Amino acid sequence: MLSLDEEVRLYTTNAEREKYSLLATLFGVVVALDYLERAYVRDAITAAEYSPACTRLLSQYMTMLKLVKDSIPSIEDFMARYRLDTPAALHRIKVGVPATVEHSSEAGPETGKWIAETTQNFITFMDALKLRLRAKDQLHPILQELVTGYARFKGSKDWEGRSRMVGWLITLNGMKASEELTEEQSRQLLFDVDYAYAEFFRSLGGNKDGL
Q1: Does the pLDDT value for residue 184 go beyond 50?
Q2: CA–CA separation, 93 vs 77, rounded Å?
Q3: Percent of the chain having pLDDT more than 70?
Q4: Residue 135 pairs with which residues in a beta bridge?
Q5: Last residue of one domain, picked from the residues 67, 102, 137
Q6: Using alpha carbons only, what angle is made at residue 171 by residues 124 and 46, rounded to the nearest 5 degrees?
Q7: Whole-number mean pLDDT of the chain?
Q8: How many whole angstroms separate alpha carbon 179 and alpha carbon 51?
Q9: Hey, CA dihedral for 73, 165, 127, 112, is it positive or negative?
Q10: What are the VPS28 C-terminal domain coordinates in residue numbering (predicted)?
Q11: Less packed terminus of the chain by CB within 10 Å, N or C?
Q12: What is the DSSP string of 137-177?
């Protein structure tokens, strides 16, 4: 007969113990991210404090997810299984970048270096699509860097191209690493990136006070 005072073990092997340890770490990362998001929304922390902390937690989440992918079909399943009520964390995970990037920052005057870097990021990403790169693990890092640099321009929150890029970032973020965009999706993505690229340069040339 099982004693009520006896400790219940979740595992019987070292492999199972490691699995539950990883799941516990993932649980902690998601909870921490939710608290961070709520603190930022309440202005309890500054953007300068929030951005690096959020980036670090998202990176930790991606690392942990790779380690437990055989046990966790999706983050939604994980939250449901362990009764995690963390909608703010779920949204941030789906977007894949801090709110300061998603909604544009107010970082101050942009420099020629920013323009050069963003231009190069556009070209790199469009070249990747033209070379028929389709998998999430090929495209997501490049697009994430593009969107992050793009968001440093204060006027970018009003650019339609930027919202399209964030939408594609969310789409890629929801895919498995080996999943690929369809031919139709790839063509639409290239069209949207080209649109954003043209809009970016029109804004630089015609509205320098808004940068």
Answers
A1: yes
A2: 14
A3: 84
A4: 180
A5: 102
A6: 85
A7: 82
A8: 29
A9: negative
A10: 110-205
A11: N
A12: HHHHHHHHHHHHHHTTSGGGGG-HHHHHHHHHHHHHHTS-T
DSSP code of 108? -
The pair of structure tokens assigned to 152 is 């440093």
Q: Which domain holds residue 179?
A: 109-205
Dig out the tokens for 133 from the structure: 């790169």
Exposure string for 54-89, b = 16+ CB within 10 A, e = fewer:
beebbebbeebbeeeeeebeebeebbeeeebebebb
Tokens in use for 45? 């922390």
For residues 98 and 179, membership in a common domain is answered with no
Residues 116 and 79 in one domain: no
Give the rounded percent of residues in the chain with a pLDDT score beyond 90.
33
| Residue 210 forms part of a structural domain | no
Residue 1 lies in a domain: no
Token pair of 163 as six digits:
């919202």
* Residues 79 and 116 both lie in one domain: no
Higher pLDDT, 100 or 109: 100
Q: Are residues 124 and 93 in the same domain?
A: no
- Give dist(CA 205, CA 127) in Å, integer: 24
Each as own residue / partner, the long-range contacts of residues 169-173 (CB below 8 Å, 24 or more positions apart, any chain) are 169/95, 169/96, 169/97, 169/140, 169/143, 169/144, 170/94, 170/95, 170/96, 172/96, 172/136, 172/139, 172/140, 172/143, 173/93, 173/94, 173/95, 173/96, 173/140
